[in-house]
Amino acid sequence: MSNSNKRYTQFSEYLKEKFGVRVYKITLDAGFSCPNRDGTISTGGCIFCDDGGSFSKAHSNLLPINEQVIVGIEYLKKRFKAEKFMSYFQAFSNTYKPLNELETIYSQALNHPDIVGISIGTRPDCVDDEKIKLISSYTKDYETWIEYGLQTIHNKTLKKINRGHDYECFLKAYEKTKNAGIKVCTHVIFGMWENHDEIMQTAKELARLEVDGVKIHMLCALEGTKLAQMYAKGEIDFMSEDEYIQTVCDFLEYLPKKTTIQRLAGNGWNATLVAPKWLGKKWDCLNKIDRELIKRNSFQGKNITT
């Protein structure tokens, strides 16, 4: 799986094996929006999305992208003695601009000798043939990923969270992306009014598709979101930490070993996190996942039969 002692295929180890050194992501903010927030699809956006659009770092104040890259590289070199980097567009929908603007933005993000890749977070309804063609042009020289926020394969849940697209939309975008030679990381969320079997159905479908990467998130309420309002009214409760850990391990057992695991626990959001409070302890959660897999004598792909 990897040279680490983990029982799942870490994305960091995949990159280290490919490039010979640790590769660090530089989170970039190009001021993208989202069709599910600006009224193009609906109003209000997804019920869990706050004004940061899942942006995990301090906002850039919209420095030019090439300057953000330089600042990020200098910081990571100083802190971690890092050598190689990926440009990562995370907040909101990072293909939601005209093609000529996207080309300028992505080119600036790659215009540094220490950048070896690019990862673009977006929605499956925010890509088309021309945008896919542009992004695929980077695959020759760079590690190139698109991260799609799927969240679940169940349309009833997608509707409930006001996602604004269905699973069939994801499948069409996924096929186009894979056919263009671009790697795909799929985001899923646990705790969205789904039972255990429904969550495992998502795992099995991602296994069938042989997705290149997966990020697992826990549904959480942040200040200023529709979900926080629902939580205050008692309209939803959240998974306990133990339930989440058990579900993560079950989910991993259905994923192929070649699928890279790019997230298993949140980074914290302590300043705006309403619930569940345990989510702010990322490393504690990751250690408990490791211990549970050892306790089970289990590993990623255990339940896959050939």
Fold and architecture overview:
The protein has 306 residues and is α/β, with parallel strands linked by helices. It has a single domain, classed as Alpha-Beta Barrel (TIM Barrel), CATH 3.20.20.70. Helices cover 37% and strands 17% of the residues. The protein contains ten helices and nine strands. The strands form two sheets. The protein has a seven-stranded parallel beta sheet, with helices on both faces. It has a two-stranded antiparallel sheet with strand order 7-9. Strand 5, helix 7 and strand 6 form a beta-alpha-beta unit. Helix 2 (65-80) packs parallel to helix 3, helix 3 (99-110) runs parallel beside helix 4 and helix 7 runs parallel beside helix 9. It is globular, with a radius of gyration of 19 Å. It starts with 10 loop residues before the first helix and ends in a 10-residue tail after the last helix. The model has no long low-confidence stretch (mean pLDDT 93).
CATH superfamily: Aldolase class I
What name is given to the CATH topology?
TIM Barrel
The major pleated sheet works out as: 7 strands, parallel
**CATH architecture classification:** Alpha-Beta Barrel
Q: What is the helical fraction, as a range of percent?
A: 25-40%
Binned strand content: 15-25%
Layout: helices, strands, pairs:
Layout: H1 11-19, E1 23-28, H2 65-80, E2 84-89, H3 99-110, E3 115-122, H4 129-136, E4 143-151, H5 155-160, H6 167-179, E5 183-190, H7 196-209, E6 213-218, E7 221-222, H8 226-232, H9 241-252, E8 260-263, E9 273-275, H10 282-296
Parallel strand pairs: 1-2, 2-3, 3-4, 4-5, 5-6, 6-8
Antiparallel strand pairs: 7-9
Helix pairs in contact: 2-3, 3-4, 7-9, 9-10
